[in-house]
Amino acid sequence: MTRVALLQIDVSDSEQPHERITRVLDVVRAQSGKCDIAILPELWPIGAFNSSALHDNAQLRDGSLVSDLQSVAREAGIWLHGGSFVEKHDEGISNTAVVIRPDGTIAAMYRKIHLFGFDEGEAIMVERGHDIVTIADTPLGNAGIATCYDLRFPELFRAQAAQNADSLVISSGWPTPRINHWRVLIQARAIENQAWVIACNEVGTNGPVTLGGHSMIVNPMGEIVCEAGESEEILYADVDVTLAQSWRQNFPVQRDRVL
Fold first, then answer.
1. For this structure, is 148 an active site residue?
2. Catalytic: which of 35, 42, 122, 200?
3. Does 35 qualify as catalytic in the annotation?
4. For residue 131, which of 152, 116, 148, 147 has the smallest C-alpha distance?
5. Average pLDDT in the 162-173 region?
6. Tens of pLDDT, residues 55-78
7. What is the domain count for the chain?
8. N or C, which end of the chain has less CB nearby within 10 Å?
9. Cα R_g (the chain), whole angstroms
10. What is the spatial distance between Cα 215 and Cα 203, in angstroms, rounded to a whole number?
11. Active site residue 34
């Protein structure tokens, strides 16, 4: 069994990014002995809908935020999905997720492929990623990495399933008005790919948007194992990673796929 902690963080604008970073690093540090892997939401230092802060908070991959996340993962002795941060690079900025091993080394980074905004905000300010990322040998088995709006595009997760993903890990800033979509899509991605879905959302008021919470863990049969509420909290659950492969063997729906 793998003990998972979803860190559903409040990203309300009343808290400054530097204050939140210090607070959240302490939350991660406190997970020592409580979980095998902790997961943070999307763009948690500034909030997923704080587009005006994207450029001012952009950092290189070896900047202070990633370095601090590496340090606290090492201190706590846990795997850490550090949510995503604004990555500065030669082509501009990207919404980049980072996954860190217990020794503090980086297992992988993933630049968000599907950008939200319909010609506004992230959609025009951020450079999309192109690489599908599945990380081998994590506490969640082969783990496919995705971010928020990616959830609406099943082709990404099909590709990760083809890479033998046991789990699909999603960090998000999903708003309250569409939270029912979030819940349905998470279950759909689990059912159609016969994989665990581990999804961490954020809460609070970010600009004009209220974030919806309801971080969830759904098993490969599409059953909700646990679900958070609409306030900041830490959601713990035990995940049997082997369930994905055994369910695929017992119910081999994938072999009937035509397209």
1. yes
2. 42
3. no
4. 147
5. 97
6. 999 999 999 999 999 999 999 999
7. 1
8. C
9. 17
10. 10
11. no
**Three-class secondary structure of residue 183 per DSSP:** helix
Tokens read off for 119: 């010609």
Structural domain harbouring 52: 2-256
Going by the DSSP 8-state scheme, the letter that residue 232 receives in this structure is: S
Query: Distance (Å, rounded) from C-alpha 170 to C-alpha 120?
Result: 23
The CATH number given to whatever domain includes residue 245 is 3.60.110.10
Per-residue model confidence (pLDDT) at position 158 = 97
Amino acid type, 103:
D
Please check whether residue 141 is in contact with residue 115, taking contact to mean a CB–CB distance below 8 angstroms: no
Query: CB of 215 within 8 A of CB of 200?
Result: yes
What does the alpha-carbon distance between residue 35 and residue 20 come to, in Å, rounded to a whole number?
22
Active-site residue, selected from the candidate residues 112, 122, 200, 202: 112
| The residue count for the chain | 259
Q: What CA–CA distance (Å, rounded) separates 14 from 29?
A: 23
Element (DSSP H or E) covering residue 54: none
Structure tokens at 13: 């604008």
